[in-house]
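Retro notes, item 3 of 5
We never archived the inputs for the 6-phosphogluconic acid complex last cycle. Fixing that now. Sequence and ligand:
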Amino acid sequence: MSPLPDPAATPNFAVIVMGVSGCGKSTLGSLLGAALDAPFLEGDDFHAPEAVAKMRAGCPLSDEDRWPWLDRIGLAANAAVATHGRTVIACSALRAAYRARLHAAIATPVRFILLENSRERLLARLASRANHYMPTSLLDSQLATLERPGQDEDALILNTDADPAALRDAVLHWLR
Ligand SMILES: Nc1ncnc2c1ncn2[C@@H]1O[C@H](COP(=O)(O)OP(=O)(O)O)[C@@H](O)[C@H]1O
Ligand SMILES: O=C(O)[C@H](O)[C@@H](O)[C@H](O)[C@H](O)COP(=O)(O)O
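Structure as it came back at the time:
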């Protein structure tokens, strides 16, 4: 892998790793944050306690639950870009309207990466993940809500059968 561009000479940007629960957002996002020397923001940390309780109880979030959450992520992204010039965010961003909200909230170019896998593989990964509030029973509603980015959104789409380091390198290549 060739060296990254000089951060001082690189325009500001935000990278959002998106997709349904268990697709690998946090795993890839934290690797990308380290590789880009950028703060990594975990979208789960910005949910209201009531929203986490709702998901824990097996109830999908509504648009009304998600709008303020997306706006909080936007504010945190702007703060991270102000201090570091770039940030990497893990955020489900399942619908096109949520991605538009993030674009509107974040005052710098935003690049989306959709992570995908089969329902069976996602269920297995969710089941093997310890200490997480998200029940596997919500996967089907996540998959039903997901609107894959269209061509107009210029997103990178990756399957997470590949190992995380290979995915990280594919994203770094795409960003250049
Ligand atoms: N590329 C990958 N290959 C194998 N396992 C992965 C990969 N990405 C994530 N995982 C595993 O799948 C589970 C869900 O990943 P996670 O990053 O928490 O997903 P998300 O943040 O999208 O919910 C975790 O146990 C993680 O270790
Ligand atoms: O919009 C949503 O419904 C949530 O953001 C959801 O997509 C997210 O998946 C959960 O917060 C669980 O977190 P993980 O994605 O880390 O499983």
